């Protein structure tokens, strides 16, 4: 079997899955058709790039996004050829940086993959995977919700974004009209009226997108955005692409040490844009993370991640202008604090808020939207096939709670701690091994590494094909 090229199945056809399929078929001649299981109509979109609201824009300039690190401005080149920017003049800033709608990037990925689909190198199976099980003779069975069953020697799990989970203080309200747990579900915000008073739980990128969507739909009521620290994602500066600072030479072995070095870099050159330092941390994140023991990784995630996320994941300038206008109008208030309790109140909600350093206060809202992000910590129970693999001991959650445990080559790690050579986990779901694997450039590089590992291109070529 090891002398034949393997049949490869990819579960999840968002950006990660589509990119791996593209790189596999770009690198190997004679490979059996790569099957991608994805219920959506098109590959390459997923949660991030399947958004239909044109206000949901990419948050870095198009010139820094690509399906391949070999051509880092491939998306921007496609935009110019496609004419998408002509149809969206607001996408381009005076300095020429382009921030098109996220759905446009999804179209770009689909367009790049289209020839592979037409040529039969990639097969799109529009079905949900219900079960994955090891075959006695090696490889895997894959059962889908339409009753079909297929075989593969190698499986790649690329289902990166599970549904959000409501905060514990809102759990008793799940199912009530007016509580939006998943703002990305189709029509999720339509029930919110123009004058409704809305609580948004979370103050990051998703909050900004929800505010932009509500604003465009004519909402003029009060919005309160709440998070533990009240930190709002920073605006992207398209002119700042440099990275400054060395954090990977003799990397700090503690979370406190990492934070100390970043603060020192900020103090050493206060006139330098802070984005350059965060760019350096992002690019060196793998080495920084690898130097930390698990207990320090947990500490870093618990105490530093909120500050990191609001600076690392920046808001598109067009969306940031909406936030600033709403704040100036007095219709958007950002608070630091927490929810202590909640209850149904007529057709709305009575929510007990405790501002940071203050006393609890019961506030009435017509609608509540949670934007706390995907529930990666409970990923193994989020889909039946993942739960089944976990029950079989084939994979396990990563010890930091960021997703599924893998080695640094992307192989799943079993409950016994063994590497599963023919089962890969790709994209943000595997970030527990890398620390930083949410931004598009990092996910692109990860897809390339996974494809290379599958095909045996790399240091230990022989052992990747079948195992």
TrEMBL record:
**Boundaries of each FAD-dependent urate hydroxylase HpyO/Asp monooxygenase CreE-like FAD/NAD(P)-binding domain copy?**
9-161
Tell me the domain of life. Answer: Bacteria
Q: What is this protein called?
A: FAD-dependent oxidoreductase
Checking InterPro entries in the record gives: FAD/NAD-bd_sf, HpyO/CreE_NAD-binding, L-asp_N-monooxygenase_NS-form
The organism encoding this protein is Gluconacetobacter aggeris
């Amino acid at each position: 079997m090891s002398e034949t090229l393997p049949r490869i199945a990819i579960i999840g056809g968002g950006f990660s899955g589509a990119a791996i399929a593209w790189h596999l078929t770009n690198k190997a001649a004679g490979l059996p058709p790569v099957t991608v299981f994805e219920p959506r109509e098109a590959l390459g979109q997923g949660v991030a790039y399947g958004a239909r609201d044109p206000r949901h824009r990419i948050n870095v300039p198009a010139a820094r996004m690509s399906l391949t690190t070999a051509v880092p401005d491939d998306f921007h080149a496609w935009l110019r050829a496609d004419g998408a920017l002509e149809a969206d003049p607001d996408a381009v800033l005076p300095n020429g940086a382009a921030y098109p709608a996220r759905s446009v990037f999804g179209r770009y990925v689909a367009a790049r993959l289209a020839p592979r689909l037409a040529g039969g190198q990639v097969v799109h199976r529009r079905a949900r995977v219900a079960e994955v099980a090891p075959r006695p003779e090696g490889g895997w069975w894959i059962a889908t919700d339409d009753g079909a069953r297929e075989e593969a020697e190698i499986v790649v799990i690329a289902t990166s974004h599970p549904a959000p989970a409501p905060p514990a203080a809102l759990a008793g309200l799940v199912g009530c009209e007016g509580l939006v747990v998943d703002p990305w579900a189709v029509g999720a915000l339509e029930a919110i009226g123009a004058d409704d008073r809305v609580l948004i739980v979370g103050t990051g990128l998703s909050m900004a997108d929800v505010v932009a969507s509500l604003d465009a739909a004519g909402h003029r009521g009060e919005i309160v955005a709440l998070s533990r620290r009240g930190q709002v994602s920073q605006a992207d500066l398209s002119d700042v692409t440099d990275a400054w600072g060395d954090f990977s030479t003799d990397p700090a072995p503690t979370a406190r040490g990492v934070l100390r070095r970043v603060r020192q870099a900020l103090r050493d050159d206060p006139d330098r844009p802070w984005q350059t330092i965060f760019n350096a941390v992002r690019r060196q994140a793998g080495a920084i993370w690898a130097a930390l023991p698990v207990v320090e990784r947990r500490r870093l995630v618990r105490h530093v991640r909120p500050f990191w996320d609001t600076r690392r994941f920046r808001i598109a300038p067009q969306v940031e202008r909406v936030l600033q206008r709403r704040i100036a109008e007095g219709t958007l208030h950002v608070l630091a604090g927490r929810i202590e309790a909640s209850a149904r109140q007529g057709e709305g909600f009575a929510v007990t808020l405790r501002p940071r350093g203050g006393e609890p206060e019961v506030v009435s809202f017509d609608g509540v939207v949670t934007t706390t992000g995907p529930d990666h910590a409970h990923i193994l129970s989020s889909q039946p096939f993942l739960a089944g693999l976990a029950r079989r001991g084939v994979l396990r959650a990563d010890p930091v709670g960021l997703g599924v445990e893998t080695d640094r080559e992307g192989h799943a790690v079993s409950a016994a701690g063994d590497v599963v050579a023919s089962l890969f986990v790709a994209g943000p779901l595997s970030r527990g091994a890398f620390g930083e694997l949410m931004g598009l450039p990092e996910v692109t590089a990860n897809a390339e590494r996974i494809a290379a590992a599958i095909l045996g291109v790399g240091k230990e070529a022989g052992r990747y094909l079948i195992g």
